Structures are given as structure tokens and as C-alpha cells.
Amino acid sequence: MALEHVVRKSQDWRARERAKTFLLLCQPLLSCEVAKVQDLNICTVRDTWQRWLREGMACLHDKPRSGAPSKPDQAAVDRLVQWAREEPLSATELLQRHVEAQGDPIHVETLIRILKANGLVW
Fold it and tell me: Which residues touch 17 (CB under 8 Å, ≥6 apart)?
């Protein structure tokens, strides 16, 4: 069954917990009993079940959260990664070059995080 696969293999702990909740609710257990077994609030169990009825398997994973978009756009990220691969620059020098090329100012730690996410060691 797909839910059992999610419980055993998913890396997302929330998806695993929700799948466990659904599997327990499919047994002859009440919401309050499932809440006790999983140490959850009964309202959480009921809300999770209602989402399952509305969305099915799609409700296992979190929806994208709102928030500010990433400061550097993809073109800026590509440019930064290219510069980092072409020349041995420090993070500060790379950031200065980015700003000189009319890039949006970002924090040096943000730059380092971007480089690491693209497979570069900084």
C-alpha cells in the first residue's frame, strides 16, 4: 500500500506522521484513540482526516509556504556560480563583483549559502 511505503521510506517526517494517522484511522480506532497513540491533539487528527478526504495522497506533503522571494534571481545565481568556478575569488571579492555588475546587494552569508547549494565548497 502507498501509505505504508510513505511510513517506511519517506524522508519527510510530517508526511510519515500523517500517513501513520491515516493508517490508524483506517483501523477501527476513534480519533481520540489515534490522538493518544500518536500524542497529538484530537483536532489535529480530525483536521488531518478532513484534508485526506478532500485531497487524498496530495495532503501528505506540506504546501509551499508564502514569504519573500529569493533575493538573487536565477540569472544572478548562475552568474555568481560561473564567476566562482572561473576565478579563485574570496566570498567578499565575489560579492563586490556582483554589486559592481548591478546585482542586488546580498549578505555574504547568503552568497556562501548559494555557492554551497550549487556544489561549491566555500
Answer: 38
In the chain, what are the domain boundaries?
2-60, 74-117
pLDDT at 8: 94
Distance of CA 115 to the CA centre of its chain: 18
Residue closest to 59 by CA, chosen among 113, 115, 6, 119: 6
pTM: predicted TM-score of the whole model, two decimal places: 0.56
Angle at CA of residue 22, ends 17 and 27, nearest 5°: 125
pLDDT(85) > 90: yes
Residue 48 CA to chain centroid, in angstroms? 19
CA–CA distance from 90 to each of 58, 61, 77, 98, 110 (Å)? 44, 39, 16, 12, 14
From CA 71, how far away is CA 67, in angstroms rounded? 12
Cα–Cα separations (whole angstroms), residue 53 to 57, 60, 122 = 9, 12, 47
